[in-house]
Specification:
The complex is a heterodimer of chains A (about 550) and B (about 200). With about 550 residues, chain A is of the alpha/beta class. Chain A contains 12 helices and 16 strands. Chain B has one domain. Classes of the chains: A alpha/beta (about 550), B mainly alpha (about 200).
Chain lengths: ~550, ~200
C-alpha cells in the first residue's frame, strides 16, 4: 500500500471519484493542477463484469464459486441509522467511479424553471445561478460523455443540440406515446448517457440492456472509464484507494489543511494534507464528513455556522406502476433489451395552461421494464390467475405486453428533513455514522394524487390494464437514489453553505461539488447537472489558484 | 439515480420490500410477499445459481418428503407442455434456496403450508397429496388458487407463495427464458430495431 507522506501538501485533495469527484479530478489535472484523489473503495475490474452472462451461464459460474462484482456497499460494513418508523433506503457504491458504475444514466438538463422555482413560489431559496450560467457546461458535458436523445426541447427540458441519435421506441412505448398524445401530455425521446455513436475511443452501445450489471465495453458514462484514465494520463493525478475519509482537518485560521482517513483494508488511520479540499463523496457521505469535522472554529461541523448543513434533504418521490397491453398479448417475443431503460420520457407538464394543480413544483415520468423483460417473466406474472398449462400460456402471451410507469416528483426542501451524525453509533473506525431523518409533507401528498390520476389517465387512453395496482403507494423513501440539498448553494451565507461556485462561504478552501449542493431537487435525475456544476466549480477553483487566492 | 431506472429495479424493489417489511400486495400476507420479494431478488442476483447448477444436490431446508412435494407442486403450477416444466428447470432447488435465505418465521409459514396441503388432501381424498390422483391434485390446487372457494387462509397464502417462487425460478432458467418465452438471447446488436408495426404508431 502506498503511504502518503503527511509532510507533502497537495495542491488539491478530492474526496470521492464518482460523477462529482471524478469530474473535479479530471478537470483540475487537465489544467495542470496536481490532485490527490481519495476513494473509499477500489477499482472495479471491467473485464470481470457479468454484463453478457446469460442467467443459465451465471448458474455455471456460480457453481464454480465465481461472483459478479459487488458494487453496493453493505450496511453490515457501514451502517447508517434512521428514526423508528421512518426507514430510508440508502444506496452507496464505494469504489472508483462510485454510483456511475451502475447508474440509471437518465440525463436531463435542469431548466430555468427548475433553478428559479423558489423565486416563483417563495419556498426556500433559489439557486444562485441561472440556466445561462450552466448551459455552456451542459454543452461540454454532453459532448464529453455522449448522451442520446431527441430534438424535442421545451421550457421544461431544454438543450438537445449535442445529443446523439435516440434508439427507436419499443411497441409498448409507442402505445404509451399514443395515449399521452391523446391527453395532450408531453412525451419525448429518452435522454440517456448511453452512447449510440462511438465516442472518444469507446464503442457505441450494443443494446444488451444489462447496464445495471456494469458495462464491460464502457459504452455508457462511468467516471472510472471516461474520466479517471484520462486524468491519470496527465501525470497529475494520484489515486489513493480504500481511503475512507472521516474528517476534514482545519488549522487555527479555520481553513482546511487536509483530511483524516482510514484504510479500509487495514483500519489504519492516516492523514493527507492539502491547500484545497474538494468534497464529492455523494450527498450523504459528504454531509457525514462535514458534520464530523468539528473544531473550535467549526463547533457545528465544517463551515456550518448557518446550521444549514445536513438540513433540507430532498429525495424525490416515486410511484411504480405495472400493467400490460392486451393489444400486444400473444405477439411474437421481441428483443426489447435496447439501452436498458425506457426509450421515452414524459417531461413535467403541470406548468402548462390548464394542467396545473394546487401544489408546488412538478413531476415527470419514466417507463423502464416496458416490453419483453430480459430477466424472464415480468414479476407482474405472479398476478396472472390460475396454474398449470393455462397459466404458462397466459404468461407467455403477456411477456411482450408489459409496461411500467414511474412518475418521479420533486420533494420540497424542509429544514426538518435532516442528516445528522449519530454520536451514539460509530462505524468500525470509531467515526459517527449518518442518521437520516426523512419524511414527506402535504405538498408531496397532493402531488402523489396528481401522479396517480395521470398514470390512470395514461393507462386508460393507451388501452392498458393495471396489475397489482395500489393507487398512490410511493416507493420506499430513498429509492430514487437522488439525495440533495444538505449543503446547499446560495447567495445568503445565513441560509446556505456554498457560494455560486460551490465554495464554502465560511471556509474558502473547501468546495462541495455533489448533489448536496443543490438547493432543490427538481423532478429530474441529477447526474448531468452534478457533472456540469463540478466542471464549473473546478474551473473557478483553477482560476482562483492561478490568481493566487487559494 | 436511479440506480433507479435500471432494469434490475425488480431486485432493488424486492430488497426494499424486505427491508421495509412486507410492503406487499394488499391482499398478500406478510410472509407471502416476503417470499415473493426474496425470490425476485434471488432470481436477479443469481443467488440460487450455484445450487441449481450443482451436480450433487440435497435440500438445505426442506426434508426429502417436503422436497418431493415441492417438486410435484411446482410442476403442477408450471407443467411440461411443448416445453419442459418446473421439474426440468429444477425449480425445487430454487425454492429450497429461497427458503434457506428467508427469515425463520417465513420459512416456518411455508413448511406449515406444505403440511396443510397433505392434511387437506387426507381430509378430502383420504390420502396424502403425492398419493392422490392427478385430478384430485388439480382439484385441491383449484380450491386454493381461487378466492371463491372457502379454503383456509393458510392454504390460499401458501399457494400464492409457491406460485410466486415457481414463476421467478422457472422463467429465469434457460428452459423458461429461451425455450418457453422465446428470448433470442442476442446481446450484441448494431442497431436497435424498435417497433415498426403500423398499428402501434
Amino acid at each position: 500500500m502506498q503511504i502518503i507522506n503527511p509532510a507533502t501538501v497537495h495542491p488539491v485533495i478530492v474526496i470521492g471519484s464518482g460523477a462529482s469527484g471524478g469530474m473535479a479530478a479530471w478537470n483540475l489535472t487537465r489544467q495542470g493542477i496536481d490532485v490527490l484523489l481519495l476513494d473509499a473503495g477500489d477499482k472495479f475490474d471491467r473485464s470481470k463484469y457479468w454484463t453478457h452472462v446469460q442467467p443459465w451461464q451465471a448458474q455455471e459460474r456460480a457453481a464454480r464459486g465465481e461472483k459478479p462484482p459487488q458494487f453496493f456497499l453493505d450496511t453490515a460494513e457501514q451502517p447508517y441509522t434512521t428514526p423508528e418508523g421512518r426507514p430510508f433506503a440508502l444506496t452507496r457504491v464505494w469504489g472508483h467511479g462510485g454510483k456511475t458504475n451502475v447508474w440509471g444514466r437518465v440525463s436531463l438538463r435542469y431548466s430555468q424553471m427548475d433553478l428559479k422555482a423558489s423565486e416563483r413560489d417563495g419556498w426556500e431559496i433559489p439557486w444562485p445561478i441561472a440556466y445561462s450560467d450552466i448551459a455552456p457546461y451542459y454543452d461540454q458535458v454532453e459532448q464529453l460523455i455522449g448522451v442520446c436523445g431527441g430534438t424535442d426541447d421545451s421550457e421544461a427540458l431544454p438543450g438537445s443540440k449535442f445529443l446523439q441519435p435516440p434508439p427507436a421506441p419499443r411497441c409498448g412505448e409507442r402505445l404509451l406515446m399514443r395515449g399521452m398524445a391523446k391527453l395532450a401530455l408531453p412525451v419525448v425521446a429518452g435522454r440517456r448517457a448511453n452512447m449510440t455513436r462511438p465516442t472518444r475511443g469507446f464503442p457505441a452501445c450494443h443494446y444488451c440492456g444489462n447496464c445495471g450489471a456494469g458495462c464491460d465495453t464502457a459504452s455508457f458514462f462511468c467516471s472510472a472509464d471516461h474520466l479517471l484514465p484520462f486524468a491519470l494520463k496527465t501525470g497529475k493525478l494520484t489515486i489513493q484507494s480504500n481511503a475512507v475519509v472521516a474528517r476534514i482537518l482545519t488549522g487555527d485560521d479555520g481553513l482546511a489543511r487536509g483530511v483524516q482517513y482510514f484504510d479500509r483494508q487495514t483500519g489504519a488511520e492516516r492523514q493527507a494534507l492539502a491547500k484545497v479540499v474538494v468534497v464529492g463523496a455523494s450527498c450523504v457521505d459528504s454531509t457525514r464528513i462535514l458534520l464530523n469535522s468539528k473544531s473550535t472554529r467549526h463547533p457545528n461541523g465544517l463551515g456550518n455556522g448557518s446550521d444549514v448543513i445536513g438540513r433540507y434533504l430532498c429525495e424525490q418521490i416515486r410511484l411504480n406502476v405495472t400493467g400490460y397491453f392486451p393489444q400486444l398479448e400473444g405477439t411474437p417475443t421481441r428483443n426489447d433489451r435496447g439501452i436498458g431503460g425506457e426509450h421515452i420520457y414524459m417531461p413535467r407538464f403541470n406548468h402548462l395552461k390548464g394542467k396545473g394543480r394546487d401544489y408546488l413544483r412538478g413531476f415527470g415520468a419514466q417507463f423502464w421494464n416496458t416490453g419483453a423483460s430480459i430477466y424472464g417473466a415480468h414479476y407482474g406474472s405472479e398476478a396472472v390467475p390460475g396454474f398449470g398449462a393455462s397459466l404458462k400460456r397466459a404468461i407467455k402471451r403477456r411477456h411482450p405486453a408489459w409496461f411500467e410507469i414511474h412518475p418521479f416528483g420533486e420533494a420540497l426542501p424542509y429544514a426538518h428533513n435532516r442528516i445528522t451524525v449519530d454520536p451514539a453509533k460509530v462505524d468500525r473506525y470509531g467515526v459517527p455514522v449518518p442518521r437520516i431523518d426523512y419524511h414527506i409533507g402535504e405538498n408531496e401528498k397532493k402531488m402523489t394524487e396528481h401522479m396517480a390520476d395521470t398514470v390512470e389517465e395514461i393507462v386508460k387512453a393507451s388501452g392498458g390494464m393495471l396489475v397489482n395496482y395500489r393507487r398512490g403507494q410511493l416507493d420506499a423513501m430513498g429509492s430514487a437514489v437522488h439525495e440533495h440539498g444538505t449543503c446547499r448553494m446560495g447567495t445568503d451565507p445565513k441560509r446556505s453553505a456554498l457560494n455560486r461556485f460551490n465554495q464554502m462561504h465560511e471556509v474558502k478552501n473547501v468546495f462541495v461539488v455533489d448533489g448536496s449542493a443543490f438547493p432543490n431537487a427538481s423532478e429530474k435525475n441529477p447526474t448531468l447537472t452534478i457533472l456540469a456544476l463540478s466542471w464549473r466549480a473546478t474551473d473557478w477553483l483553477a482560476e482562483e489558484i492561478k490568481r493566487g487566492n487559494l | 439515480m436511479a440506480i433507479s431506472e435500471r432494469p434490475d429495479v425488480g431486485r432493488r424493489q424486492a430488497l426494499r420490500a424486505l427491508a421495509a417489511g412486507a410492503v406487499g400486495a394488499a391482499a398478500s400476507a406478510g410472509w407471502v410477499e416476503s417470499l415473493a420479494a426474496l425470490s425476485r431478488q434471488q432470481a436477479h442476483a443469481h443467488a440460487a445459481d450455484a445450487v441449481i447448477a450443482a451436480q450433487d444436490w440435497t435440500p438445505k431446508t426442506l426434508t426429502a418428503p417436503q422436497n418431493e412435494l415441492v417438486v410435484a407442486l411446482t410442476e403442477l403450477i408450471i407443467p411440461e407442455t411443448e416445453t419442459p416444466g418446473a421439474r426440468a428447470a429444477r425449480v425445487n432447488r430454487f425454492v429450497d434456496q429461497v427458503l434457506t435465505d428467508a427469515p425463520a418465521a417465513v420459512r416456518d409459514s411455508f413448511t406449515r403450508g406444505l403440511a396443510w396441503i397433505d392434511a387437506r388432501s387426507r381430509a378430502l381424498f383420504k390420502r396424502e397429496f403425492l398419493a392422490a390422483s392427478a385430478e384430485q391434485q388439480t382439484a385441491l390446487l383449484s380450491r386454493i388458487s381461487s378466492d371463491v372457494e372457502q379454503e383456509e387462509a393458510i392454504g390460499r397464502e401458501f399457494f400464492q407463495a409457491i406460485k410466486g417462487m415457481t414463476i421467478n425460478g422457472y422463467y429465469t432458467s434457460e428452459i423458461g427464458l429461451r425455450q418457453e418465452l422465446g428470448d433470442n438471447g442476442q446481446l450484441f446488436l448494431p442497431q436497435f430495431q424498435g417497433c415498426s408495426h403500423a398499428e402501434h404508431q
